[in-house]
Known about the structure:
The complex is a heterohexamer, with 3 copies of chain A and 3 copies of chain D. Chain A is α+β, with helices and mostly antiparallel strands. Chain A has 3 helices and 7 strands, in the order E-H-E-E-E-E-H-E-E-H. Chain A has a 4-stranded antiparallel beta sheet, with helices on one face. In chain A, helix 1 (about 15-20) runs antiparallel to helix 2 (about 70-80). The longest helix of chain A is centred in the C-terminal third of the chain and has 12 residues, at about 70-80. Chain D has a two-stranded antiparallel ribbon with strand order 1-2. In chain D, helix 3 (about 65-90) crosses helix 6 and helix 9 (about 205-225) packs parallel to helix 15. The chains are: A alpha+beta, D mainly alpha. Chains in contact: A-B, A-C, A-E, A-F, B-C, B-D, B-E, C-D, C-F, D-E, D-F, E-F. At the D-E interface, helix 1, helix 2, helix 3 and helix 6 of D face helix 1, helix 2, helix 10, helix 11 and helix 12 of E. The structure holds adenosine-5'-diphosphate (3 copies). One adenosine-5'-diphosphate sits at the interface of chains A and C.
Amino acid sequence: MKLIIAYIQPHRLNAVKQALFEKEVVKMSVTTALGCGQQMGYHETYRGAGIEVNLLKKIRIEIAVTEPYVQTTIDAIISGARTGKIGDGKIFVTELTDCIRIRTGETGDDAVG
Amino acid sequence: MKLIIAYIQPHRLNAVKQALFEKEVVKMSVTTALGCGQQMGYHETYRGAGIEVNLLKKIRIEIAVTEPYVQTTIDAIISGARTGKIGDGKIFVTELTDCIRIRTGETGDDAVG
Amino acid sequence: MKLIIAYIQPHRLNAVKQALFEKEVVKMSVTTALGCGQQMGYHETYRGAGIEVNLLKKIRIEIAVTEPYVQTTIDAIISGARTGKIGDGKIFVTELTDCIRIRTGETGDDAVG
Amino acid sequence: MKPLLLSAILLALSAQAYADDVTLAEVHLKANNTWMLVSIILVFIMHLGFATLESGLTRSKNTVNILFKNTGVLAIGLLTYALCGFNLMYPGFIDGRDATAVAEAGTAGNEWFGFAGWGIEPPEGYDPLTYADGNYTYWTDFLFQAMFAATAATIVSGAVAERIKLSGFLLFSVVFVGFVYPWMGSWKWGFGWLHDRGFHDFAGSTLVHSVGGWGALAGVIVLGPRIGKYIGGSVKPIMGHSLPLAAIGVFLLWFGWYGFNGGSVLSADPEAVSKVFVTTTLSAAAGVMTAILMSWLVSRKPDLTMALNGALAGLVGVTASADVVSVSSAIVIGMVSGVIVIFGVPLFDRLRLDDPVGALSVHLLCGIWGTLAVGIFAPDQASFAIQLLGVVAYGAASFTCALGLFFLLKITVGIRVSEEEELIGLDIGEHGMEAYNGFQIFLTQ
Amino acid sequence: MKPLLLSAILLALSAQAYADDVTLAEVHLKANNTWMLVSIILVFIMHLGFATLESGLTRSKNTVNILFKNTGVLAIGLLTYALCGFNLMYPGFIDGRDATAVAEAGTAGNEWFGFAGWGIEPPEGYDPLTYADGNYTYWTDFLFQAMFAATAATIVSGAVAERIKLSGFLLFSVVFVGFVYPWMGSWKWGFGWLHDRGFHDFAGSTLVHSVGGWGALAGVIVLGPRIGKYIGGSVKPIMGHSLPLAAIGVFLLWFGWYGFNGGSVLSADPEAVSKVFVTTTLSAAAGVMTAILMSWLVSRKPDLTMALNGALAGLVGVTASADVVSVSSAIVIGMVSGVIVIFGVPLFDRLRLDDPVGALSVHLLCGIWGTLAVGIFAPDQASFAIQLLGVVAYGAASFTCALGLFFLLKITVGIRVSEEEELIGLDIGEHGMEAYNGFQIFLTQ
Amino acid sequence: MKPLLLSAILLALSAQAYADDVTLAEVHLKANNTWMLVSIILVFIMHLGFATLESGLTRSKNTVNILFKNTGVLAIGLLTYALCGFNLMYPGFIDGRDATAVAEAGTAGNEWFGFAGWGIEPPEGYDPLTYADGNYTYWTDFLFQAMFAATAATIVSGAVAERIKLSGFLLFSVVFVGFVYPWMGSWKWGFGWLHDRGFHDFAGSTLVHSVGGWGALAGVIVLGPRIGKYIGGSVKPIMGHSLPLAAIGVFLLWFGWYGFNGGSVLSADPEAVSKVFVTTTLSAAAGVMTAILMSWLVSRKPDLTMALNGALAGLVGVTASADVVSVSSAIVIGMVSGVIVIFGVPLFDRLRLDDPVGALSVHLLCGIWGTLAVGIFAPDQASFAIQLLGVVAYGAASFTCALGLFFLLKITVGIRVSEEEELIGLDIGEHGMEAYNGFQIFLTQ
Ligand SMILES: Nc1ncnc2c1ncn2[C@@H]1O[C@H](COP(=O)(O)OP(=O)(O)O)[C@@H](O)[C@H]1O
Ligand SMILES: Nc1ncnc2c1ncn2[C@@H]1O[C@H](COP(=O)(O)OP(=O)(O)O)[C@@H](O)[C@H]1O
Ligand SMILES: Nc1ncnc2c1ncn2[C@@H]1O[C@H](COP(=O)(O)OP(=O)(O)O)[C@@H](O)[C@H]1O
């Protein structure tokens, strides 16, 4: 099992969800995040003083998947999130040692889906 | 060491904290998250137009624990979070390579607690 | 590759960013979190009733780095975040199996930076 | 006497220039009525004050519901008052305390109930100039009273917030504002039996605030506390989601109170209205100060919500007596009110009566205190005994009616939302809508 | 007859005591003018109402921009109205319906356009006592009208929100408020050709609200919908970020409406103003009720934003007739308005006309309905035909001017922000500033 | 002459019908007093304006504290003004500019200090009709002035926000509002030495705003900047947490200013009050416009907070002269004020004077400018020299008193919170309470 973490542009979330649903990846967790990366920030001015903002609003998606789904999931995220512009974001893949469904106590692959 | 990530129903947080404290797991980090899973969403209407909301408010708990505590922690979370209803949530367990306490520089197991 | 997760005091974020930038670690993701740890909470009173708050506002930083950068990054975070007071926070290091840059599809080390 | 005569004639001439287009009586009515119109507007905005205060002191998952209730109650209150409320409250009882009137009527005047018919329409041979001795028109009269009416139900709304079913609450409001409030109001302001006995309630510490407070108490009892408020022996504070909203609410209420009390003079009488302004203002200020000091002492840290409630406490407290007490008495009344609210809130909590916004302490307790205060600080106006009688009579009637109503609704449409709905919030449950879209908010309570 | 004579003299004496420091006429003017001043203040605060309502019903990433627009439009409106608006709207046309005046002027009075010069300055031999038959001063006259002017542009602001370029909008406002609105206003309130023909629009259902509404329609058409509002065949609701703000806005608008309608009596005439208060209030309340009931039926869950829009609908609807209709007619007008708004919003969505705040339904549709309602409920005042003529004339003129203006701006400075800016939000794009610093907010829409 | 006599008699008869129940003088007082009462209410709501503006422009972790301070200061101001302020400000100095009065008093009238005793009570043989030539009652007089008093301290509150200790600030307010402000006020409005010398300050550009501004400056100097505001050579903007709150604040202040300036006419004189309305309004609008344009030019993107400050700048600027300048002068005054605020804010930042809300630029600088403007645009009213004298005198006195007070408090109770408390926020530190419960907010600043 893998735990896939993706940072995407906020306005791409719906597209990504769409792409994942089509691939039957229907479970995920989403949070907001501020991201700093290649994408340059923007300039804010407040009451005469300026400031460079380089922490941009991003969406963080966390998806636990079983091995067979890893690539599908990654492809789906990319297809939904890619605009070709800097700031599209990143996908991180980490090992998932175990997964438990609280309601039933199921563990492992059965619990992921 | 393991890093345990749990998604639970918001209103179960206090119960989960309680359960963890009893097991002397007193360190954790909590964030809000939107979750999409088996639990069906709900229908919102806004100014005549309807929309299906399937990203539900959840609480994300992150706990780093030493091996001996892994099972205790998982059990505690379950005991606090389980209602038997769909949407109770999931627990994800990942490997924790290292842990450092910023204040002291301690590393490994000593730093976790 | 490693995925470094750090919890720090909110007001130390700028210092940490500074320290990271100096070490050319310019990519990161930041979220807010509530943390419970050694640091004692504070007492709130609301309309005559008191309550102990032990979930304190923290900042969660997530940084994916290539092996050579791991220690540098950790040191930078510590140098920026340490005040010597309880509550300075923790750094967690986990394995990063893979990393993909959505925009280009690059993977592995190339994608991290 | 020639010059005099001449001057008389000259004056006559000059005066005549206007005699044909406007008379002193007309101007007098204008001056009075304009103030009453302003008062109407001020009392109107109090409803925004209630809406913001109540939503500010509750959780963000119930905000839409609270705003909705306050908007709905206002509309219901105004329409039902036009339909029947006004004529229930002012059924044309004879002023039993006016000797001649009684003589003519041949009655000691002990009216308990009356109804002057459906809808609103000026009386036979209506002449604005004489309708209220040139103080206001029929329409002003109706609307000023109508704005008051909705207030009573709004007071209930805050206390039962975060768990009451929308439909149940709206039905309650229709009956409470449309019938209960005006009927009981007629006892005093409609020249009913309590008026005859000399009960004094200037602007409604009892007729409006206690009546609403008793209704709130009934609701709180029937509904029970919110999930998670009382766990085991201890009280778990459920914090309001936006204190700026709460502060806006209190300032708007204070603002509107100048119309609530100032308008209750029922004319622009300069001395009377301005005196009422001073007593009202200083009582509110005194309420704030004691609330601040007490909460500083009691919980070591000064509580903003208590300071704000202190202002309302002072305002409710002085409402019954603003026209008859001295400045110093007004300050004392306000100080006591501030203390009452500080001890009232935890008291109700100890009694497991869950009142999210403190309506019971502010409107019920201070309403009672303010009414009795008339007997203490202005005994020449009304004896303590008669004031007590009024408090008891209104308390018994209002509480009984409200309790009955809530029970009836409980066994019929139901008045409490499901546990699941309460947890996810009434905004999504009752309205399928969120108050703060996009904001990331902890819903752990 | 001696006593009489004596009394006459005595009265003369007593009266004389004041004759030297104040006359009845002066007091009369004071009483009237004070009410008009209050009305000015009330109409002023409506601009805060618009600002909060519009920002509450849109996304947090565009809040700064909306607040900025509303502040800017107010300033622009006031200054341009002083510069030329007032003298464009009141160019001194002769009251063509006043037989004698026409006779003197020897004209049937069918004025279409006039301009009395730049800047504001009281007329030759100005005497406050006679300027408006002792109802208000020149300065009151100007300011009351000036406060109205900015409203028309503010109505547009809401409908074009979240995608219009700041510069483009401000330029539009200058022309629309500075020239279009006052010019068209002169047709009726300036004693122009529609006034001559007996068109009745008490406080501006058409002159202010429809005119603004038509401008909004033109803007919405030229701009096109916001990204993500209409995807494929379906409508994706884009939720407002703060319903408390929206509620504050509606209550403040209702509050200000008492000055908008009440002040339009143009004197403190007690009977007239208080009657207007009642019709205005009950129509708003009726609008709320039908909006609540309809949205409950239609979408199974009562919609707060609809209840709020219902209040505005009722207010706009009764604005043309508040002075001439009966209480029951006012209620009916309000009820119909409430229904209009419920069906109007989805209607415009079906037409792919993206109006974030519902300005088209509230101001345009209900403005038209309210104007026609005069012909239905007060045919003695104005025939349905002439009301229809007015609606059509103002619609044609306002829509054409606005459409032309927007097109002109589109091909010159441009009126729509870049897609990128729309996605990140106009606050950062146009102002480099965020409305809620530090708050974690989902910007997925 | 018969007909004339007859008419005189007839008039006498008709007039007599009312002669017994109301006199022209009474109606006159009503008309005047009603306007003054409205002004009181308007000035009251300015305190909500300050509360929302200040909290909107600061961080969410200090919101409860700011709301608390504004509530507390209002209560303190009202009570201390009743206790001694009013009688310190109006100690009954003889109008030294009234030749006859001086003659009688046999003094050139150069009063510096006076005190008419504790508490408030109408003077001997008080008759509302004559108390202020039938313009307002004693109570109105007191309350209108009392509402002004609290303002001065509130101005300070904004500038010292986010770092000042609650106890220290409240103690400062007691002395500043209870003694310093009224004492200095007596120099001009109390017929003191500056009044004698012909200093002109209509509604308080200097007496209220500069005085408050100087107090703010003293506080800012003694306290030092907020942590993180000035790092090395550069200024790090600390953004306000809610611009909607800030906008609400400014609109409410503008709204209330109609009472602040309009009420300062001290009667409902139609021409005078309405003229003041126009100058006040257009100056504010002009301030907005120049602030918008300048900030657009200076920082390439128009700054909402500057546009809002521009409105306040225009209002403060015209406050000293609203009654005596022409419309065009008022616009110029407003324009200059708008420019002042744009350059003032960064100026103070360069001087490392950390003023979170811009009170120094708005109230201090524009207050000074407005006072001097009288000498420029209405030299016939007051020479530039005497205006300058007034500015200097008030500046010296107010700044010295405030500085002394703050130092005294610093070495006694202490005035700055600990670094730790400042970082976690004063809401938790001083009140153990959060303003936005449940909301996830970045506290990195
Ligand atoms: N090494 C990293 N560690 C953590 N988050 C990262 C890292 N690199 C990128 N991100 C996240 O991905 C987002 C997009 O990255 P960015 O470099 O701006 O776009 P792109 O990868 O398309 O050039 C960043 O805002 C940040 O949130
Ligand atoms: N595969 C997954 N990856 C990420 N988060 C998940 C996954 N499965 C479940 N979750 C999280 O757990 C929450 C509860 O899951 P859900 O399936 O609704 O409940 P249950 O597991 O009891 O049926 C979801 O809302 C989501 O936040
Ligand atoms: N075992 C853990 N699991 C998850 N988060 C932790 C853990 N230990 C500490 N944290 C996070 O780090 C923060 C600081 O920890 P704390 O113990 O208070 O400081 P210190 O480590 O300096 O004593 C906590 O608030 C929490 O957010």
